[in-house]
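Retro notes
What went well: the complex prediction finally ran end to end.
Inputs used:
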Amino acid sequence: MPVKKICYDYPHPALTTDIVIFTIQQQQLKSLLVKRSGEPYEGKWALPGGFVSMHENLRQCAERELAEETGVSGVYLEQLYTFGDPDRDPRERIITVAYYALIPSDKLQLRAAPDAEAVAWFAMDDLPKLAFDHDKILRKAKQRLSDKLDYSTIVFQFMPVDFTLSELQDVQQVISEEDVDKRNFRKWVLALDIIKETGKERREGRHRPAKLYRLKDRNKVDIIR
Amino acid sequence: MPVKKICYDYPHPALTTDIVIFTIQQQQLKSLLVKRSGEPYEGKWALPGGFVSMHENLRQCAERELAEETGVSGVYLEQLYTFGDPDRDPRERIITVAYYALIPSDKLQLRAAPDAEAVAWFAMDDLPKLAFDHDKILRKAKQRLSDKLDYSTIVFQFMPVDFTLSELQDVQQVISEEDVDKRNFRKWVLALDIIKETGKERREGRHRPAKLYRLKDRNKVDIIR
DNA sequence: TCAAAAGTGTTCTCTTTACACCCATGC
DNA sequence: GCATGGGTGTAAAGAGAACACTTTTGA
């Protein structure tokens, strides 16, 4: 806590980034929330986020928050929207630049030490009451994600290094909330020419094993169509 | 100038909105810039913009700036992106929430008193050197506009109340920078079912007069396809 | 041998593209 | 009467949607 105050000629807002962290678990789209331990909205769930420090840019701040909550880095992260209504925080005016991140299921295990806070994954169709305007942020993130599903290869960002086409299709269907024809889906995926066969397969259960595929470039998200 | 300073426990950034104001003039996509009269970047051209006051929300601020520079209100205005690199302004850290606005050509006449500043429209392919990171903002706005041309009815936001299909096609071509087939374009436009014939026509020159059309709902922008 | 998920092509429909001539007017 | 931009339809190609059976495995 600095003893010296920082002073300006005019009032300045505070600046935070909040992150909507999406992943797929148990065939559901889930989002990471943290339980607030102080006022305002004490005990309510909220998006992870925090103040932007003076030396870092907005994206770096979001990356830092993401790493603090999940231990994860190097995942898909995109600026979503900026929320700045005067009364969105009762303490002082706080502008938040919202980002959203997609966590592939294989990165999920390496959860960082939970920092003694209450942190939990919530299914998007079973959200608790949220602090501040965070429900608005979450809905906007969900909308952006759904939209991008249609005109980009963003769905692959949820996949582990090796995955089957059925798993991929499941993820697609969970997010878009509509069923996809298996043959058409596979045709579409293969035509994208962004995955390759690994030669390996996964057998699990008394049925034919599934071929494992891998992204040619795991970090690339293409705009298509 | 307030005599009393406003003080915080931690440093806060300043907050502005900057607006990319697009219009079509002389078959060119143009953007409004203002010449800076003070340091930094004195004499350089910059996007119109200004500080967000404490009682207004971000959109209201953008609307206010827009009205100050152009006298125009009630036009298409959308949040673009937030730029917040630590050193984007040499004086202090300034976060800017960029918006972009589209001005239809009939609203253009009613330019407000230019407020004694140097203000000018620049063709997008003939821009001067810009202050701060404003070239980055402008390019992003142009990109967003081009993208939306393909999946929304945003192009109509440039049109006056009454317009001909040829005028509309011109605008489309200027922004997308590619030629469109006349018959296919008209088929597409009419299939949208968002314009109606006015019954009037425009004759100008020694050729057949063109039918004038009007948007059924001038404020609506649909996502299509 | 049976249950369960993996894998695989073809046809039909709809959307998008390509393309050329007549029309109404002013000079 | 001629130059100028306004206005119009059809056919071919391509993209997207619909659809059902065989394969491989583990129990």
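What we learned: The radius of gyration of chain A is 20 Å.
What to try next: split runs per interface for comparison.
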